[in-house]
Amino acid sequence: MSIWLYHIPYEIGEPNMFAVHFFENKNQLLCQLLKNVPNEGEALTIKGRTGKIASVKNIDEKNIHVQVIFEAVKKAKPVLDNSKKKKR
44-88 pLDDT, tens per residue? Predict the structure, then answer.
C-alpha cells in the first residue's frame, strides 16, 4: 500500500524497519526506527554518553529492546589552593 506524503511516495510497512528501544536499567533512553538491529558487545554513543550493548531482546517481529551499560562518568575534583587562605 502506498500513499503520497508531500508529493513523495511513502511505503507503509516497509519490511526491514525495526523499532529499537534503548534502555538503561528500566529507564528508556531512546527509541529509533532502524534498518539494522545492533549486536551485543557493540559500542555506541547515546546523548553524548558512551556505552556497550549488554543484551538484545526481540519483543515481536518489529519491536526490539536493547539493554545498554554506560561507562561511569569521572568527575574532576577541584584542586584546593591552600596559599589563598588566611593564616592565623
Answer: 998 889 999 999 999 998 899 999 999 888 888 877 766 666 666
**Which neighbouring-strand residues pair with 4?**
9
Grid coordinates representing 43? 559500542
CA atoms lying within 13 Å on the CB side of residue 35: 1
CA distance 26 to 30: 12
Helix intervals (H) in 1-88 = none
DSSP label at 17? -
Strand partners, 18: 34
Give the C-alpha separation, 22 to 68, whole Å.
7
Collapsing DSSP to helix, strand or coil, 82 comes out as helix
